[in-house]
Amino acid sequence: MKRYHWDIYAVLEAPQELYFGHEVEINVNRVETVTLEGPGGKVVKAYFSPTKRRGIERRTLLWAPHRDGKTLGEHLECGIPGTCARMEPEGDKPTCPICRVYGALRPGEKTVIGRLTHGGGVAIQTLEPQEKQRAMHPSDLVRSGKDQENPTPFRREYNQPGLYYPVYNHALSVSEEEFAAAAYAFLNALPRVGAGNPKGACVLSDEEFGPYLVLDRYLVPKGARPIISPHQTDIEEALASFRQEARRVRGVSFASGKAEDAYFARWVGEAALAELERMAEVFAKEHLV
Ligand SMILES: [Zn+2]
Fold first, then answer.
1. Is the Cα dihedral 90, 92, 94, 96 positive or negative?
2. Its pTM surpasses 0.85
3. Tens digits of per-residue pLDDT, 95-128?
4. How many whole angstroms from 87 Cα to the centroid of ligand 1?
């Protein structure tokens, strides 16, 4: 079982407003933001935190449809927070492909350090979250009968549509079969990001570059890593630097979206998407169908 390091670099776009629950002030549900100090003073930006993305990816795997009619989580008897932490088969229970990569905790017994980490998430644009009025808090909807009070109006903040979020996933020393879980989770989590409704983001794509997606598999890192500075607020400059760094690999040239030598392979744009899809299929064949 050959191991590699793996990185995904992507720019996500939200086609509609998104709510990422953060904290509740009196009748206002706030989203998470970050404040940056730059040359032009303080800037507040929307934030899609890596820990939230990690949680959504893990749930995507737990809810994946298993051939026996259950979800994969039910089949494996693995959940949140009750992670199974099975690094090898125990009795008739198989190794857990989710805990193996995302880590797990069996209180008092076993801690498994995850080998997949998540980064990025600071929006490029400086559009701040907007507050909206909502008629009834979701938790009030389940109340019924005569004791129901009048609907409580509440306000909720939303990240604005069209924001671009550069995001990064890094896997440390995992086999292709193990990374397949991360590839499946990354692709399938995209339509499901955000709390409540509406949900969903997609990989930004344009004519010139295709999907803003880079996949690295390596023993030795080579060339530039397409990471957008959180201080960058200009969309055109941000995307140009992503494109430029994606194509800058030392000593290896690109052929049909892929650069490769004995220590390093990089897939860019459409080729990166195709390779992630291929690995998601490896996961589905092994663990779902
Ligand atoms: Zn598990």
1. negative
2. yes
3. 999 999 999 988 888 899 999 999 999 999 998 7
4. 8
